[in-house]
């Protein structure tokens, strides 16, 4: 019995040691590197700020679009334009954008018919880039809200650090119970798989960028082939970042506490649909990597509470009992730390094991969808997604 428990506990212990080490290193490297409204300007006030084209694709975003576009039109930046692309929305998205588009900064356009082989967001961004006038392109989502200084601070950082992409990780707003349980686990998985400090290291292939805010030099975007080069990718932000970095260009990703924020998903159904769409793609359509992710979730979320059974079994004392205590303490240290960092009420961390189990079900659902017609998102179904077939197929 003791041997069986140790077989489960020791790998879980190793995983948690690794997770906590990555988390601590992440906190240390991000200390002082966060980009916030109060961050001192990284360039001299006399520095010339280049023209920026802000590209905003949107599909069925009536819930958040008005706040997003209003915040973009209120940016404290001298020269910029906002190009809004309505990606065949079936709600009031287009109407809201047209209502706000009377000013000179906002340009409205409808996305052309989606060609075979293209994901809808990639097609919308591709068409927006074709008419953009800026030396820099900012790709942002229609559910992202911006502080007036967000663009200025990002451009200053790009110039001062002499990089080709600046990406900001938004502050994620969570309102419902399951959002508060699941989003910290999502953040933990992303940070573990692709730590920011590794992504910002030019000598490493690791990449983490957030599609909600990608500021890129236009000449670099065109040199790598733009969104046409990644036309069928569902997780287009990571695909673009990986493409840019593989060509020798430099990325700089950082977090922010107040420059941009978003509510990614609404309630359990939104979490289920959104994470199911991206899970398999995040792991590069690899069954082996999905299996590894499921094993990781088992180790971090299920083994620690299960190991508490050692307290109830007289034969399982000694090392197994000690490791069980350490595992549970490490699990809740990681859960509480991530929850606090995201400004989520601490009660959500109590449900960390349940969240890991739900995330495993989401992963299995994503894998199932990939080979049975593809995931559906906002009224559009994507074709079967496998190592050799990633093209998006429209269904309206």
Describe the structure in brief:
By secondary structure, this protein is α/β, with parallel strands linked by helices.
Could you say which overall geometry the principal axes of the C-alpha atoms support? globular
- Please state the average pLDDT score: 89
Strand order of the largest sheet: 3-2-1-4-8-6-9
Low-confidence stretches: 386-396
CATH homologous group name of the largest domain = Spore Coat Polysaccharide Biosynthesis Protein SpsA, Chain A
Q: What is the CATH-assigned architecture of the largest domain? A: Alpha-Beta Complex
Q: Kindly estimate the percentage of residues that lie in beta strands according to DSSP.
A: 5-15%
Number of helices: 13
Number of domains: 2
Summing up helix and strand content along with how strands pair, one would put the structural category as: alpha/beta
How many E-type strands?
A: 12
List keywords for this structure.
396 residues; alpha/beta; Spore Coat Polysaccharide Biosynthesis Protein SpsA, Chain A; 2 domains; 7-stranded mixed β-sheet; 3-stranded mixed β-sheet; 13 helices; 12 strands; globular; disordered C terminus
């Amino acid at each position: 019995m003791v041997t069986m428990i140790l077989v489960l506990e020791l790998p879980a212990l190793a995983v948690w040691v690794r997770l906590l080490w990555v988390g601590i290193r992440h906190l240390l490297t991000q200390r002082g590197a966060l980009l916030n409204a109060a961050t001192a300007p990284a360039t001299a006030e006399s520095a010339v700020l280049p023209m920026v084209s802000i590209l905003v694709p949107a599909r069925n975003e009536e819930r958040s679009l008005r706040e997003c576009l209003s915040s973009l039109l209120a940016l404290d930046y001298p020269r910029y334009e906002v190009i809004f692309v309505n990606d065949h929305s079936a709600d009031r998205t287009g109407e809201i954008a047209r209502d706000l588009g009377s000013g000179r900064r906002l340009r409205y356009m409808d996305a052309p018919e989606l060609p075979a082989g293209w994901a809808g967001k990639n097609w919308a961004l591709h068409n927006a880039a074709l008419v953009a006038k800026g030396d820099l392109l900012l790709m942002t989502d229609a559910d992202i809200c911006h502080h007036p200084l967000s663009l200025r601070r990002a451009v200053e950082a790009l110039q001062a650090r002499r990089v080709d992409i600046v990406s900001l990780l938004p502050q994620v707003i969570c309102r419902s119970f399951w959002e508060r349980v699941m989003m910290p686990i999502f953040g933990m998985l992303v940070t573990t798989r692709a730590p920011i400090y590794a992504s910002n290291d030019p000598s490493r292939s690791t990449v983490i960028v957030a599609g909600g805010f990608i500021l890129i030099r236009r000449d670099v975007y065109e040199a790598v082939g733009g969104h046409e080069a990644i036309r069928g990718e569902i997780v287009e932000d990571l695909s673009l970042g990986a493409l840019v970095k593989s060509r020798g260009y430099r990325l700089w990703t950082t977090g922010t506490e107040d420059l941009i924020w978003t509510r990614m998903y609404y309630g359990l159904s939104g979490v289920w649909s959104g994470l199911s769409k991206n899970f398999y793609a995040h792991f590069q359509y690899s069954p082996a990597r999905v299996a590894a992710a499921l094993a990781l979730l088992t180790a971090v979320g299920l083994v620690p509470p299960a190991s508490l059974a050692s307290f109830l079994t007289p034969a399982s004392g000694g090392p197994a009992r000690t490791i069980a205590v350490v595992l549970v303490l490490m699990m809740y240290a990681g859960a509480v730390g991530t929850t606090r960092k995201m400004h989520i009420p601490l009660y959500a961390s109590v449900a960390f094991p349940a969240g890991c189990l739900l995330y495993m079900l989401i992963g299995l659902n994503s894998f199932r969808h990939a080979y049975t017609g593809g995931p559906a998102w906002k009224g559009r179904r994507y074709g079967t997604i496998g190592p050799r077939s990633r093209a998006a197929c429209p269904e309206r």
